[in-house]
Amino acid sequence: MTVADRESLRARHPRPAVDLAPAPDDRHGMSRWSVRLRLVLVSLCLGWSATVSPAIAQTPPRLEAHRCWFKTPRGASAKCYLLSVAENRAAPGGRVVKLPVAVLKSVSANKQPDPVIYLSGGPGEAPLAAPAPGIDPLKDGDWWKSTATIRRGRDFIFIGQRGAQLSRPALTCDDVASPKSLLSRFVGRFDVVEDERRAMERCRAELDRRGIDVTQYSTPALADDVADLVRALELSKVNLYGVSYGTRWALEVMRRHPALVRAAILDSVYPPHVNGDQEEADAVRRAFNRLFLECAADAWCARKYPNLRGDLETLVARLDRTPVRLRLKLSGGKTTVAIDGTKALLVLLHVMRLGGEDIGKLPTTIARAAAGNYAALRFFAEDLETTEGGIVEAPIEEMGGLYYSIECRETTAFLDRPARERSIADAGIYGLVARANTGPALCPIWRVPPAEPSERQPVDSRIPTLLLSGSYDWLTPSTWAEAARQHLPNARHVEFRAMGHAVTANDACAEMLLAQFVATPDPNRAPGCLAGNPPPRFTDKPPK
Question: What is the distance between the terminal CA atoms of the chain, rounded to a whole angstrom?
Fold first, then answer.
């Protein structure tokens, strides 16, 4: 989540975090990467003109006022626009893409000139789009409240992803499944994959018929969209705030347009030199190993659940042989779902993604399900289906092609498939989730060329950067933030031991760090809310 980004639900209880020391102000930590080719960043002193290619300069971006997609609370103000940019910047006379933009105005009469630009996740998340008819997207995400501290001094800006919902055009087709997040990639068995394959073929043919060049919907193109927005708003500097895939988007802005970025906050980091599909099985196994170790180190949990690993592996193996049918209470009524081993793992991983007090209920959920009591597992399955999907194998309805345009180009194209298969086999039951990932099988249908190898190199930058991660985040593990930090000598990484994905949406301290770093982007200044770093508090209280 997604992880949607706001890919997670808001936090129930704030958790303290651990402060990992800032990267040293030298290049010693980069020696391990010396054999890799890296892009040469444009010098900051060259200014704006050096960061804009001739193709971009020939196609000035244009803002036109638009009615906002949300209601503005009393006492607040906002302005909304459509940003017109070239679909293909190498062919500026071609199709124009229009992107939704919303500026939540600062409440200060003397606001700072460098706003915060939020870069959403997915790929394909659309924070300005209503998740359902009649729902206000900013109220649903609690955005007015969570940005209040930032808006005391600066504007807060949303820019939509080209090809996502509300973008014109949007890479959507009827009758094709659309992942709401990374979690919902994991659908059913071979018949479902074949249904999705046929639907994707129809979708790609429809986009071709409409004259949409799906190769132009990529992370570099999105990064240049941000630069075009900065130009259109006549800004000189901005702060970037990215979550999940939005961190990869932000890093690409830092690489391509460094002179525009004052500071960056990267939450749940997904750097370009990491391949998520390649590391999927290992990430799942490490997340559960952390749970087993921390339960064993907790006196109550160790006494109550001395064989937690065995309980989980027995449960998953049993469900994989004989799925259990659970009746879920969903918004559309009650639905009976067959929960096999893969779906059971996904439900438990969803709990890790949420973080906070829910993680502390995992040992009880696992042990009771292993003994045949599925009440807690059912509760979390209902929550997963309501927020993300992926449990109920519903008919294929609609797809957002942006996800595949980016992930097939930038991730799957660089997959070492034999190594991935070995990793899945070595992971045992923890490889079931990666095995169920349909992306690698479906990408050949989408027919996008691989990214340039230079795009897959680490981003080297001295821009002040705050990296945030959760110890139980298996979608974007904290090790990925560390991999990014090796190339960011002016950065600090803060890891939250009892949190999962999208920590700024789930933890009060993380939200505070975001606002503090925007105000004073100094990685060497230890934030005040870091008061220890306890693991999850394990409990047998039922979820609610």
Answer: 21
